[in-house]
Amino acid sequence: MRIRNNKGFTLIELLIVVAIIGIIAAIAIPGLLRARMSGNEASAIGSLRAINSGQATFASSCGSGNYANTLVGLSQPPTGAPVGTEGFVSLDLAADPANKSGYLVTLTAGAAAAGNPAPVSCNPATLVATYFAGADPVTPNSTGTRYFGTNQGGTIYQALNAAVAVTQTGAPAGAAPIQ
Question: What SS3 state is found at 48?
Answer without folding.
Answer: helix
